[in-house]
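Researcher: Go.
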Amino acid sequence: MKIGLAADHGGFDLKNQIAQWLQEAGFGITDLGAHAYEAQDDYPDLVHPLAEAVATGEVDRGIAVCGSGVGAAIVANKTKGVRAALITETYSARQGVEHDDMNLLCLGGRVIGPELARELVFAFAKAQYSGEERHDRRLQKLQQIENANNG
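Model: Structure:
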C-alpha cells in the first residue's frame, strides 16, 4: 500500500515521524510536502495536492497533519472521492476505514503526542473496508450527495 503524506508547519515534525514509522513497517510513502519547515505556509496548499493524489489513485490512502487537524480535514473533504476525518482515538481510525471507506486520515500535530499518533496511523493503515451491504449502501448514498453537490 502506498500512503501519501502532507503537512503544514503545525504538523511538519509529526509528518516526518509518520513517514519513518510507515517506511520501517514496509509501506510505500509519497511525501507531498512540506519538505522544509516554513512557518508561514498554508495548509490548503499542502493538503489539497494530497487529496487529489488520493482521489486519482496516485496513492491508496493519505495522512494529512496540520496544527489541529481541523483545517486539513476541511480541505481534504472538498475533493470529490475523498473521505477524510480528524481522528483522535484508535476505534474511529480503524472503524472509519472498515465502515465508511475513509481514505484520508487527518491529525493535529499540536494536539496529540507521538505515541497516540503512531497507534492512529497503524490502525488506519492496517484497516480494510468491509464491503458489507449496509456499508456499501451508505457509501453509495454519500457518493450521490457528492455528485449532486459537485456535478
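Model: DSSP finds six helices and five strands in the chain.
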